[in-house]
Specification:
alpha+beta, Aminopeptidase, 2 domains, 12-stranded mixed β-sheet
Length: 299
């Protein structure tokens, strides 16, 4: 199943139909692999990168799992090599790939840099088993929150926007998207039944929220917002546990879209997820550009 971030309707919604290009590798007349790319132009140069609110957008292929390993690897090499040959000229390429794909030697051979990064994923199953995997301190926080807050699914995106803004302000970071941009993104996701917004309340005041995007297989924790005045309620912990419980009956995986920032990583780790590697692909065909970017720490 192709992840939601590769779907044409998703990409049309967040960057517009004219801003991305579907690269398709054909074996004869049969499409075997795809790579939707987001093209940006600056100073007359082309860049291939990740759109906002899109955690992954690398090559994607499907391989017959019943074939011999040597046959599977041979096919993957063919598909990846074919995709790279179809890419438009670019000054810089930086994308993240789906964790399910882990054979990238052909990309290394083609001159791509491979950087290993991590997210946390939970294989959704019986809630008692998942509860037992959660760190003891985190379980205590969830219990405390459950006694003081009320959680419900909501359509109040304006409230969540304010909470999300508070989180970025607290971290002294700028919002990477505008409210109008998020409203457009959310409208399309809602129309496709591919998102859920959970809000936590004390009395009638919303104090925290999480925004989940899902496809048929996986639920992705895309955004978190909370009011720092109510941080002692541990509402975010309880919201995440509620979402994990809900999705356990319909989906296979809960993905924290994990950060490598130590404080955030330790919070996600406490829910008992498995550290799951994914690959960041970087390509700078021009050696002088590559050297310059390395010098200023951009690679």
């Amino acid at each position: 199943m192709i992840p939601i971030f590769y779907q044409p309707w998703y990409l049309d919604a967040i960057i517009g139909a004219d801003s991305w290009l579907p690269i398709v590798y054909l074996h004869g007349d049969d499409p075997r692999a795809i790579w939707p790319i987001y093209l940006k132009e600056k100073w007359g140069q082309r860049y291939i990168t990740l759109p906002p609110l899109t955690p992954q957008l690398g090559p994607w292929y499907h391989i017959d799992s019943t074939a011999k390993r040597t046959t599977r690897l041979s096919h993957i090499r063919e598909y990846l090599t074919g995709l790279t040959e179809l890419l438009p000229q670019h000054l810089l390429l930086q994308v993240h790939c789906d964790p399910a794909l882990n054979y990238w030697i052909p990309m290394h051979t083609a001159g791509y840099q491979l950087h290993q990064r991590y997210t946390y994923r939970i294989s959704l199953r019986d809630t008692d088993d998942m509860w037992a995997d959660i760190d003891t301190k985190q379980r205590n926080r969830i219990r405390k929150a459950q006694s003081s807050i009320r959680i419900q699914l909501s359509d109040d995106k304006a409230v969540f926007w304010e909470l999300n803004q508070m989180t970025y302000d607290r971290q002294d970071r700028s919002m990477p998207y505008s409210q109008e941009y998020v409203e457009t993104w959310d409208a399309v996701l809602s129309a496709n039944g591919s998102s859920r917004l959970y809000l936590a309340y004390v009395a009638e005041q919303a104090i925290a929220g999480i925004y989940i995007v899902h496809d048929q297989r996986c639920a992705y924790l895309m955004a978190i917002g909370s009011d720092p005045a109510h941080s002692d309620t541990h509402a975010v912990s309880s919201l995440i546990w509620k979402a994990i419980q809900d999705y356990s009956t319909t989906h296979a995986i809960f993905d924290f879209e994990g950060s490598m920032i130590p404080r955030i990583e330790s919070f996600f780790r406490s829910f008992g997820g498995v550290p799951t590697s994914y690959t960041r692909l970087v390509h700078t065909p021009n050696q002088m550009v590559d050297a310059a970017l390395r010098l200023i720490g951009k690679l």
